[in-house]
From TrEMBL:
Highest taxon, organism lineage: Bacteria
Name by which UniProt lists this protein: Replication initiation and membrane attachment
PANTHER family: DNA REPLICATION PROTEIN, PHAGE REPLICATION PROTEIN-RELATED
Domain DnaB/C C-terminal per the UniProt entry, residue ranges: 147-219, 241-305
InterPro entries with a match to the protein in the record: DNA_replication_prd_bac, DnaB/C_C, DnaD, DnaD-like_sf, WH_DNA-bd_sf
Lineage per the UniProt record: Bacteria, Bacillati, Bacillota, Clostridia, Eubacteriales
Gene3D superfamilies in the cross-refs: DnaD domain-like (1.10.10.630)
Family according to the record: Belongs to the DnaB/DnaD family.
Annotated region (Disordered), positions in chain: 79-120, 298-328
Length: 342
């Protein structure tokens, strides 16, 4: 009788690179891990279509998973071998406008005006997955930028998201630290999608905000305004409804131009509801504007100003009382015309 060790399921094993666990276990999606395990197990080249069929996933999702591992340096694409009796295709050079890859960024020596001209280009060149990966492999800074972006967003980036970052960095010529600050800000306000990141970066550069220092100051201002908008949401009871630009402009005016605090804004809101029975930003603005012109800065001053004035002893018994600093009837008539002119 002969004996041997019974390994059970351990009789059939395959190796997994330690970096997968050390670096990618947190960032890689479940599908990305499945794709890698399948490739490690089969040890033969598989197309995205074949992998999608085996895993029951869409080809687009599988390509994103493959792009993740290719960017990580664990996979490399290979041309499919020609079928028997079929000639291998001869590479055809593309036109120069198609083969041109975005220039490596050179932040030194580039003026603010030049950067703004780049960011304002309406239709940027689209980069395909291989072009993006080619740029990443040539530029360690871009590779590090994408890794940090994935850490901030807490997920692996898709091919389209990597293409956006590569474009901001190589095509628009924005600094890596600037891009990361934009991504971090967008995530902090719950807008963690690359389309919003791209729009935000473009709008900041249009405003002349194109360096780390300027972005830092701008973020402080936006954070302060966002905090004040939340105070107004709470005071007005409007919950998480998105504010329209005109409402945001009103809030900025009340806090920064008029210098009112939330107590005065809440009081103007309460008087608006008492008068017209509903929330109206233009109506509230009319009250606050009137108080601002009169120098009324506290709720106590506003209460004293609206209280009927005590008539002198020698005055007629029915002397008219002192009117408030704002004509509510006039405001009501002008409310919508005022609103449209803001």
């Amino acid at each position: 009788m002969h004996y041997q060790i019974d390994l059970g399921p351990w009789g059939g094993i395959f190796a997994v690179p330690t970096c997968v666990v050390d670096k990618h276990l947190k960032l890689a999606s479940g599908l990305a891990l499945k794709v890698l395990l399948l490739l490690l197990r089969t040890q033969i080249p598989l197309s995205a279509e074949e992998i999608a069929t085996r895993l029951g996933q869409s080809q687009g999702d599988v390509r994103d998973a493959l792009a993740y591992w290719e960017q990580a340096g664990l996979l490399s694409p290979q041309e499919a071998p020609p079928l028997e009796g079929q000639l291998a295709p001869t590479p055809v050079p593309l036109a120069s406008s198609q083969t041109a890859t975005p220039a490596e960024p050179s932040q030194e020596g580039r003026s603010q005006e030049e950067r703004q001209k780049v960011i304002r280009v309406g239709s940027k060149q689209k980069l395909d997955r291989r072009e993006v990966l080619s740029i990443i492999k040539r530029d360690e800074r871009l590779s590090g930028l994408i890794d940090e972006a994935q850490q901030i967003m807490g997920k692996p980036l898709t091919s389209a998201e990597m293409e956006t970052i590569a474009s901001l960095y190589s095509y628009y010529g924005l600094a890596a630290d600037f891009i990361l600050m934009v991504i971090q800000y967008c995530c902090s306000i719950g807008r963690a999608n690359m389309r919003y990141v791209e729009k935000t970066a473009a709008s900041w550069v249009d405003l002349g905000i194109d360096t780390h220092e300027k972005a830092e100051q701008h973020i402080l201002k936006l954070t302060d305004l966002h905090s004040k908008e939340n105070q107004v949401r709470s005071a007005f009871g409007i919950g998480e409804r998105s504010l329209i630009p005109k409402e945001e402009k009103f809030i900025n005016t009340w806090f920064n131009d008029y210098g009112f605090d939330i107590a005065m804004i809440r009081l103007a809101y309460e008087r608006t509801v008492e008068k017209i029975g509903k929330l109206s930003f233009p109506y509230i603005d009319s009250i606050l504007s009137s108080w601002y012109k009169k120098g009324i800065k506290t709720p106590r001053q506003a209460s004293e100003e609206s209280r009927p004035q005590q008539a002198p002893a020698d005055s007629p018994k029915h002397a008219p009382s002192r009117s408030t600093s704002y004509d509510l009837d006039q405001i009501e008539k002008m409310i919508y015309s005022d609103y449209l002119s803001k």
